[in-house]
Amino acid sequence: MTGLTAATMVPHTVSYGLVRDAAIVVADGHIAWVGPASDMPADYAGLDQQAHDGRLITPALIDCHTHLVHGGNRAREFEMRLNGASYEDIARAGGGIISTVAATRAAGQPDLLASALHRVDALIAQGVSVIEVKSGYGLDRDTELKMLRVARSLGQHRPIRVMTSFLGAHAVPDGMDADTYIDTICLPTLAAAHAEGLVDTVDGFCEGIAFDTAQIARLFDKARALGLPVKLHAEQLSHIGGTALAAAYGALSADHVEYATDTDAAALAAAGTVAVLLPGAFYSIHETQVPRVQAFRNYNVAMAVGTDWNPGSSPLGSILLAMNMACTLFRMTPEEALAGTTRNAARALGLTDCGVIAPGMRADLAIWNVSDPAELSYGIGINPLHIRIFEGRS
Prior knowledge:
Structural class: alpha/beta
Number of strands: 14
């Protein structure tokens, strides 16, 4: 491929790792060489060339935090809130997460797969090559396993790489206390899911309305015993110590982190844990506490950006809009936003073979009808994708 402006996103380079008038050599689904076209080795001179007229090429995008597999939707609740209903009113009417749990339990695997594939298609159309998909709308053994089986199968139906997260510790089901649920349902279901090969990472919701740090620690201890990495929804609505817990367990990521402190930022940096920022939820539920982006910069904490696509708090199906929102709402720079959906998103998933354009990396790439990488975060409701390349094939 020639005639490109390449935002390589290689770490410790300046200005997106930009290479003007670049050439990229792809072989066997991987990048063999990248650099200025004038420096391309003579060995590659006879290869078929595809000219791209100065378009921008980036690593394919990565959505490192989604809840794509679920039944139903909560559009009616959205309307009820706009008409003045309170959270309590909606809950009494059978709404909230309980409504999604009920719909997901009732849905068969074919229906869950069909609805999830529509969401996957929307992300692929925006240059995404890797998605993370969580369970968490089952809250019982059979439904959690059903969700994970559907998530695992997505990559068999679409050219997409899927990383699964067991989020059994998402909410406490009706009629049960949190400790009983963790010990009698969540932990045994995690073991069953792992035995079936359905789990890449283990996640939890550490919040006053969900699970405390002691309960999440039991979950993380089980994950550690199974040899599984962890990540955590932490400090979204309050500060109860989830970020520090994630860092203590060497978590891949701590997600949301609106209420994380400078001390938390230092702990994440020491642990090498990525801070995943999710502006869709911040926007949708009218949060006012902005993540401490400057503290993450000061402590060199890697920041990723995701859609958090879910039926309740973040019905956001656009990774490009998430990038724009991270800039406009959280004051990230466009370069930070692109790093957050490429190399840092890969790191948040424990992946080392994607997220940058460099020799030896997977040839998962996106070519855009723009010339300046800042345009990817600048546009609102604009999709400038020209071609997505997955494992070297468009």
